[in-house]
Amino acid sequence: MGAQGTSCELWLQFDFSQAAGNYSQLAAVLAGIGFLAIMLVVNRQHRRGSAGDAAHEYEQDNRFVTALACAFLGLVTAAALFALLSGEEGCALVSGRALSKEVLAGVAFYFSVYTLLFGAVQVVSAAAMGAHFRFIVAVLTPPVVLAFIVTSLDDLALSLANAPNRPAQPHGPLLPGWTDSSESLWNFAHSVLTWLIPTVLVICLAVWLAGFHWRRAADSPGRIGSALTRIVSGALIYLPYASLALVAYVVWRTAVLSRLQPGAHIGAEQAKVLVLVCAVVVMLQSISLSLARGDDRPPDFHEQASGDDEA
Fold first, then answer.
1. Is Transmembrane helix tagged as a keyword (predicted)?
2. How far apart are CA 5 and CA 230, in angstroms?
3. In the chain, what are the domain boundaries?
4. Which of 40, 86, 177, 294 is 20 to 30 A removed from 80 (C-alpha atoms)?
């Protein structure tokens, strides 16, 4: 503990501030892609046909633009947060502040990336080409997003522990002086990888399979089906705001970390709650994609060919 308090030696053997600059550039590039997608959707306003097509496309565009705009704002924010993190040095790297910022910026980044995919899969589905893309985003991506967020908790847990009494031997493990909060967070992160991530994968896959025929349905739904369709349609529009709310929380929590205290950090319990909230939000987004009625309906090429012949 004394070595940490006087010399602030980087005993963690990993300086995330060096990698934060690369994350910032990546977030900025993805933000540019999100902005380009918004412009493409807006440009579609000038290429509409009949009034019926216009009404249907307006509903689609409302869903697309909301998700893409939230992703764009989130990625710009994540780029700024990682840029600030890249400037951390000295005691902040081993005393909790820098690694707290890593966790918070990671939540903003990974959720914004998922929201970008959330909007992109709906754009592709509008062209009746998104069945496989939807499976990747709705089933395979949520566990990956959570896994990236959870793995950052290891770094935070180590920064909350005391420095080892002896330097680590070559090729030997780190032996930090665990505190109650750091050990609790370390154990939570490793237990979550064994039960929460597989649970999220199973739930997402189960809902995907349950909604297989629903996503390919072409007929009008009944009373209950109509109610479910309206709920899912609302979720596709408004769930991206939940991701944006998480980004807003991240910005506020980062601002609270005092510049005068290198040891300022988010608590272990706060980090646990944040991970669980992230799990709930990402599963709701996945479920809404899996239950979007008619979005995976294959195009009727025979009907299109008949229409062209009549024309």
1. yes
2. 57
3. 16-44+56-164+176-291
4. 40
Identity of the amino acid at 144: V
Q: What is the spatial distance between Cα 79 and Cα 13, in angstroms, rounded to a whole number?
A: 24
Other Cβ atoms within 10 Å of 90 Cβ, number: 12
Quickly tell me which residue has 């300022």 as its tokens: 264
Look at residue 1 in the predicted model and tell me its pLDDT: 41
To the nearest 10 degrees (0 to 180), the angle between helices 97-126 and 268-290 is 0
pLDDT confidence band for 282 (50 / 70 / 90) = very high
C-alpha 307/C-alpha 295 separation (Å) is: 22
C-beta neighbour count of 139 within 10 angstroms = 22
Contact 137, 118 (CB under 8 A): yes
What is the residue whose two structure tokens read 């550039």? 25
Stretch 72-77: mean pLDDT:
93
pLDDT digits (tens, 9 = 90+) for 185-229: 889 988 988 899 999 999 999 999 998 888 777 777 778 888 888
Burial 44-75 (b: 16+ CB within 10 A, else e): eeeeeeeeeeeeebeebbebbbbbbbbbbbbb
Rounded Cα distance between 24 and 81, Å, is 8
Give percent above pLDDT 70 in the chain.
Answer: 77
309 Cβ partners below 8 Å, 6+ apart? none
Q: Give 127-148 pLDDT, tens digit per residue.
A: 556 678 889 999 999 999 999 9
Q: Can you tell me which residue has the tokens 């300086």? A: 15
Which residues make beta-bridge pairs with 97? none
Looking at per-residue confidence, does 154 or 6 come out higher?
Answer: 154
Burial of 277 (0-12, 13-18, 19+ CB in 10 A): middle
